[in-house]
Amino acid sequence: MSSHPPIRSYVLRQGYFSHAQRHAYESLLPRYGIPFSENPIDLDSIFGRTAPKILEIGSGMGETTVEIAAQHPEKDFVAIEVHAPGIGSLLDRIEKHGLTNLRIIPHDAKLVLQHMLTGESLDGIHIFFPDPWPKARHHKRRLIQSDFVSLLCNRLKPGGYLHIATDWEDYAIHSLHVLSSEQRLINTAADYAPRPAYRPLTKFEQRGMKLGHTIRDLIFTKAA
Ligand SMILES: C[S@@+](CC[C@H](N)C(=O)[O-])C[C@H]1O[C@@H](n2cnc3c(N)ncnc32)[C@H](O)[C@@H]1O
Question: Which residues hold substrate?
C-alpha cells in the first residue's frame, strides 16, 4: 500500500527575518507560544481564566491579530501560523502591546485542530485572507475545503462563528459554496456579510482596494 504525503495549504520558505523578528522568535516563543503536541490542551488553564476563545488561522505578520486582541481584552485569542518571520513579528507585537490574552501555536492548523483542540471549545474562528492558490492545479491546497470546514465546525461551540475574508472573487465563491454545504452552518447574511467593526482594515487590504479588488467577508454561525 502506498501512502501519499499530506497536501499542505502552505509552502515553507526560508523567508527574511528582520532583527526584531528573529530576536522575538528566539526569545519570546517560550513565553507566548504554545508548543505543538499530539495531546489535547486546556486553554482555560493556559490563559488562567474562563473567557470566550477565538482562534485565528494564518495570522501572517500579526497586525490584525494584535489589533483585535488589544481591543477585546475580555476574550482570549489563539493564533496559528507556520511562517517563522510572521511568528516572530506577532511575538514582537504581543510583547510591545503587553497583551496577556493572545498566544500563538507555531504549527499546521490542521494538525492543531485534530490533536490539540478537542470538543466544541471555540467561540469564533477567523481566517483572514487565506492563501488563494489561484492555479486550478493548486486548488487542492486551499484551506477552505469541506473536510476542513467540517473539522472547524466540530471545534466550534453551538452558536459560535466562522469568519473568512478574501479579496479573491473565485475563492470567495468557492468558500460560499463549501460553507453553505455544511449543514451545521447558518449564513448570517444573504451571501457575503458586511465587514464587522471588529475586523480592522489592513494595509494589504487597502492596497487591494486601490487596485479595485473587492473584499468579501463570509460569516456563518454554528446551529445552536
Ligand atoms: C496570505 S497570508 C494572510 C495573513 C494574514 N491573515 C493577513 O490577512 O495579512 C496566509 C497565511 O496563512 C498561513 N497558513 C497557510 N496555511 C496554514 C496552515 N495550515 N496552518 C497555519 N498557517 C497557515 C501562511 O503561512 C500565511 O502566513
Answer: 135, 167, 202-205
Cβ 193 vs Cβ 215: under 8 Å? no
List, for residues 34-72, the tens digit of each pLDDT value.
999 999 999 999 999 999 999 999 999 999 999 999 999
| Superfamily of domain 36-222 in the CATH hierarchy | Vaccinia Virus protein VP39 (3.40.50.150)
Q: What single string gives the DSSP state of each residue in 173-204?
A: HHHHHHHHH-TTEEESSSSSBPPPTTSPPPHH
Q: Is the CB of 81 under 6 A from ligand 1?
A: yes
* Contact (CB, 8 A) for 17 and 85: yes
Residue 52 near residue 26, CB atoms below 8 Å: no
* Nearest partner of 86 among 29, 9, 165, 124, judged by Cα: 29
Q: What secondary structure does DSSP assign to 22-53, as a single string? A: HHHHHHHHHHHB----SS---HHHHHTS---E
Confidence of residue 107 (pLDDT cuts 50, 70, 90): very high
Q: State yes or no: 202 annotated in a binding site.
A: yes
Helix (H, G, I), strand (E, B) or coil at 130: coil
Residue 131 marked as a ligand binder: yes
Instruction: List the one residue out of 128, 59, 121, 130 whose CA is nearest residue 94.
Output: 59
Query: Mean pLDDT across the stretch 13-42?
Result: 93
H or E segment to which residue 122 belongs: strand 122-128
